[in-house]
Amino acid sequence: MVIKFENTYLERLYSGKEVKGKPKYADQVISKFRKTIDQIKFTENLSELKKFRGLNFEALSGNFKGKYSVRVDIKYRLILRIEQNKIVVDEIIVEDLTNHYK
Predict the structure, then answer these.
(1) What is the mean predicted confidence (pLDDT) over 64-82?
(2) Is the dihedral of CA 42, 57, 84, 64 positive or negative?
(3) 6, 8, 22, 47 - which has most CB atoms within 10 Å?
(4) Can you say whether residue 95 is alpha, beta or left, with left for phi > 0 and alpha for psi between -120 and 50 degrees?
(5) pLDDT, tens only, 7-24
(6) Which range marks the domain in which residue 10 is found?
(7) For the domain that residue 41 is a member of, what is the CATH number?
(8) What's the rounded Cα separation, in Å, for the pair 62 and 74?
């Protein structure tokens, strides 16, 4: 799938570029974040993505209706938006990496 980032901070983290200021996330979370993005990136479609039980891919409700989340670790979730392209592949837009329990 095609991955795009709405959040430039997360895009810089994923690509390994330097970010200014104090890091928002621990090194372990960043490592798991990159691994999760790679897992999504190399999945062919949403049906395959749903098969990865560890990701806990789910549609969100309430204020986040129309968005989805996947698990990065016990505490953190990636908030995603999906744009479906009938021609080639689905496009995943990474919006945020949030602490699930705050």
Answers:
(1) 92
(2) negative
(3) 6
(4) alpha
(5) 999 999 999 998 888 889
(6) 2-15+24-99
(7) 3.30.2310.20
(8) 22
